[in-house]
Amino acid sequence: MAELITVARPYAEAVYSLATEQHATQQWSESLSWLAAMVKNPDLEAVITNPKHTAQELEALMLDVLGARGNEDVKRFLAALIENSRLTLLPQIAEQFEVFKAQAEGVVDAVVETAFAMNDAQKAELTDTLSKKYGKSVRIDVRDNPDLIGGVRVLVGDDVIDASVRGKLQAMAVSLKN
Fold it and tell me: How far is CA 71 from its chain centroid?
């Protein structure tokens, strides 16, 4: 997965730069989200990855499905991805674009894995704590993960804050081996 993100990042950077110049980050965000969803569709994915289809056929199909959701720049971007056999990278490109957009807006996304469901007060407290730690507004995505046994694991970009029982048990096992 990291390799796909590495290949997708330059495309996302280029699109984000263009979107910023055009003052159209929200429009690009919506177009990329739609395109990424299209590529993830199993029926369309089967067509995209089938080598018997030409670039022109893929472009016609994608533009037909995209319809009026994309402007001329989006259509040119789509054509460039098809020409370079990078169409399957659209989900990663869209994801990286959203990361750049959030950074520019001073927002950090955090994935919070919990052993047990969190109530609204706990979510608000954690959001406030993370906002203070990172000095930015934080959006959290809470996911249940009973494998943690107890506690939470927070992923913010490359940072991992593991306050789970499983994480503490693994750390203790490692320290006992040494």
Answer: 23
User: Could you read off the pLDDT of 109-164 as tens digits, one per residue?
Assistant: 899 999 888 999 999 999 999 999 999 999 999 999 988 888 889 998 778 888 88
**CA 19 from centre of chain:** 17
- What does pTM read for this prediction? 0.70
Residues contacting residue 11 through CB under 8 Å, at least 6 positions apart? 81, 86, 89, 93, 96
Q: How many CB atoms lie within 10 A of CB 174?
A: 9
**Residue 151 backbone dihedrals phi, psi, to 5 degrees:** 85, -160
CA distances from 20 to 53, 66, 94, 162 (A): 34, 22, 15, 35
Please tell me the predicted confidence (pLDDT) of residue 148.
85
Q: Which are the contacts of 72, defined by CB distance < 8 A and separation ≥ 6?
A: none
What does the block give as tokens for 144? 């249940």
Whether the Cβ atoms of residue 110 and residue 156 lie closer than 8 Å to each other? yes
Q: How far is residue 7 from each of residues 107, 159, 160, measured CA to CA in Å?
A: 24, 22, 24
